[in-house]
Amino acid sequence: MTDIVFIRGLRLDTRIGIHDWEKQTTRPLILDLEMASDVARAAASDRIADALDYEAVARRLTEVVRHNRHELVETLAEQCAALLMREFGIPWLRLSLNKPGAVGEGVDVGVVIERGVRSST
Ligand SMILES: Nc1nc2c(c(=O)[nH]1)N=C([C@H](O)[C@@H](O)CO)CN2
Q1: CB-based burial of residue 12 (10 Å sphere; 0-12 exposed, 13-18 middle, 19+ buried)?
Q2: Cα(106) to centroid of ligand 1, in Å?
Q3: Residue 9 buriedness (CB in 10 A; 0-12 / 13-18 / 19+)
Q4: Distance between CA atoms of 91 and 119, rounded to whole angstroms?
Q5: Nearest ligand 1 atom, CA 19
Q6: What is the mean pLDDT of each run of 10 residues along the chain (121 residues)?
Q7: Hey, what CATH topology would domain 4-116 get?
Q8: Any idea where the domains of the chain sit in the sequence?
Q9: Catalytic annotation on 23?
Q10: Assuming Cys at both sites, which of 25, 82, 116, 119 could form a disulfide with 92, CB separation 3.0 to 4.6 Å?
């Protein structure tokens, strides 16, 4: 299965960073996410119960990231990936966390991680 449900450009406000001043302030992270999912099954039934609900995923991520107390985007990305795979039964995902402006105006920095197995059958 190679179908993908995606979320792009999700703004997540949180405290994150290695510097003391970063721990005092909330800033936006931008999340992009690709999740393997059997889209054909949902398409056949036209029922949200058979779909990977991107609204529910976005809501859960917003809640988890808001309460983040980690310093590194790596740690937060790993936590989000593990949680999504566990709670939503996602077999494979690619998750990108962008911390815009962290090293200069108009500069994007962050991480992209892939976890799980992306089956091609
Ligand atoms: N690989 C990383 N490098 C850096 C991170 C990070 O989370 N992962 N964080 C910082 C600072 O918090 C920066 O975003 C603000 O000065 C620096 N490098």
Answers
A1: buried
A2: 16
A3: exposed
A4: 8
A5: 12
A6: 93 98 96 97 97 98 97 98 98 98 97 92 57
A7: GTP Cyclohydrolase I, domain 2 (3.30.1130)
A8: 4-116
A9: no
A10: 116
The model carries a pTM of 0.96
Q: Among the options 5, 93, 99, 115, which is catalytic?
A: 99
Q: For residue 99, give both structure tokens.
A: 């911390």
Nearest-CA residue for atom 6 of ligand 1: 72
Distance CA 69, CA 91 (A): 27
Determine the Cα–Cα distance for residues 97 and 77; give it in Å rounded to an integer.
Answer: 7
Nearest CA to ligand 1 atom 2: 72
